[in-house]
Amino acid sequence: MTDNILDIQDLRLSFRSHGGVTEVLHGVSLSVAPEERVALVGESGSGKSVTARAVLGLLQSQRSAQITGRILFEGRDLASLSGANRRKLRGTKMSMIFQDPVSSLNPLFRIEDQFREVLRRSERSADMRRTREVAGKLLRDVSIDDPERVLASFPFQLSGGMNQRVMIAMALVNEPSLLIADEPGTALDVTVQDQTLKLMRKLADDRRAAVFFISHNLGVVREFSNRLYVIYQGRIVESGPTGSIFDDPRHPYTKALLAAVPRITRAGIPEIEESPEAFSAPCEIHETAGVAA
Length: 293
Ligand SMILES: Nc1ncnc2c1ncn2[C@@H]1O[C@H](COP(=O)(O)OP(=O)(O)OP(=O)(O)O)[C@@H](O)[C@H]1O
Ligand SMILES: [Mg+2]
Hints:
Blueprint: E1 6-17, E2 20-32, E3 37-41, H1 48-55, E4 65-73, E5 76-77, H2 83-89, E6 94-97, H3 101-104, H4 111-119, H5 128-141, H6 147-151, H7 160-171, E7 178-182, H8 190-207, E8 210-215, H9 218-224, E9 227-232, E10 235-241, H10 242-247, H11 252-259, E11 263-264, E12 270-271, H12 276-280, E13 287-288
Parallel strand pairs: 3-8, 3-9, 6-7, 7-8
Antiparallel strand pairs: 1-2, 1-4, 4-5, 9-10, 10-13, 11-12
Helix pairs in contact: 4-5, 5-7, 7-8
């Protein structure tokens, strides 16, 4: 038994194509405890999004995907759930915030209709009055002052930042215990991205929800996560508390990753280089895995 919200154990994922079978995850294990904010970082193509998609149960029905290992959500093995129950879980107990709100919201329906769809996953009989009540409150929580106008709008009538906030509000409708965010807001400008993350953090804190967060922006990761996994070519190569990994990266890939970003201090001043003290300062023990073969 485990108290974790999410436990991924030795996840292997392959895709079948005409050319044969390609394994893209080679035994990924990771966990998210209640109320934790956990980041998964790694370069493009390393397997971040497919990991999130597997957790959301979006790959299990894809015929070209072969999955082994276990994904436990609140102690329950996702593989033991029917397709219908996996769909039900998605958008209720776990919900997702995507990179690009435009492609995640349906352009053909008013925002209020989309809220109602989501609400009906947990309240089958929810009508428009109930929807407006629930959505109105959530929209105010994401700093939208005129929820009535927004609810009556189509996505194209709202700005990118507004749609992003609508999406965050929508992800919270059914009080998820885990929010999964794949590079939220990166399709939008940097200010919106920053606002999105601050908002997500506050809302997750208020609701005591855990966050599993994907990024290749290390500044964001440092600011936002308690714990961090570094993925490299489909393998977790290092994990531990975010602060200790930043202070003392052990794996050569992590070192290279950290060296590649200009460090910005909290005051917004770029750090030229680490002080020698930072290298010798004590840090919490964190786990490293062997160098990828
Ligand atoms: N449906 C699919 N069919 C075949 N291969 C896929 C599929 N989805 C992803 N892949 C492959 O799996 C690997 C991991 O992809 P993934 O999208 O998880 O990368 P990522 O870490 O999210 O990268 P990025 O930072 O660019 O978003 C890549 O080599 C990708 O080409
Ligand atoms: Mg991705």
